[in-house]
Structure prediction request, 285 residues.
Amino acid sequence: MIDTWNAAKKIELLYEKKSGGTFSNINRPTSGALVTESLARGDADVQLYSLGTPNGQKVSILFEELIECGVDFNYDAHFINIAEGDQFKSGFVDINPNSRIPSCVDTDPNTKEDINLFESGSICLYFAEKFDKFIPRDGKLKATMMNWIFWQMGSQGPMIGQFGHFYNYAPEDEIAARDYGVMRYGMETQRLCDVLDKQLAGKKYILGDEFSLADIMLYPWFNTVVNNYTDPSGLNSGEFLSVEKYKNALAWAEELEKRPAFNRGMRVCSWLEFEEKGTKPWLKD
Ligand SMILES: N[C@@H](CCC(=O)N[C@@H](CS)C(=O)NCC(=O)O)C(=O)O
Prediction:
């Protein structure tokens, strides 16, 4: 008789048995603060609490692009170590009850009133609208941009993130589960890259000739697929998923990588550079 899967009587029975792999220590079934600790705060009007992951990079690229185009804008960046549980400190949870980076506080310089911001898409739209940058004036183009931004938040990020979990972080002895997850989310990742690639056929940017928030928000997860995930043997996800076939998307990424603000934004709160160079590493180059 073939063994078939049935749910355990309660999910709690699986917590002990099936947890493991990178980051499993931060998984939990409830929300809220675990420790009482306030957040560091600098002098700038905008305080960014983040980490150089694709979700964090969307916001820091936007911030650097705003600065690059001369907007009167500055921000302090604070490194949130999600592996050590910084996202569960009370100061962080007060800003973001969902305990995820990126989060942000925008303080009105006159009234000193704080606006708390979380969810990378919400943060990006808030600042792009506030400074009237990177959002097309034309209604049809703006609607197209919104389609792509919601696609990013609802599909590209979450699905590629699941692929990354099974490819990069899941326990090494969960062979069947990893194969299943890698197949399911890897195929979906390929489909999403194909969607992006087709949108970019014959275009410089997502909307055509106009650079927009859509380019800022769609780049980091595509870059992660191409460059950042590795399986335990060191096989890169770009090679595994044959990303060389997404020629339009690769050309678009190359174009964006020429932008100095993109390069700075990608490095804000980076894991790799934080210890040595702080949250804005280029300041120490
Ligand atoms: N939809 C959220 C996703 C944010 C998210 O998942 N952030 C991850 C890092 S990329 C995180 O903070 N993880 C901490 C945890 O899982 O406890 C956004 O776009 O801001």
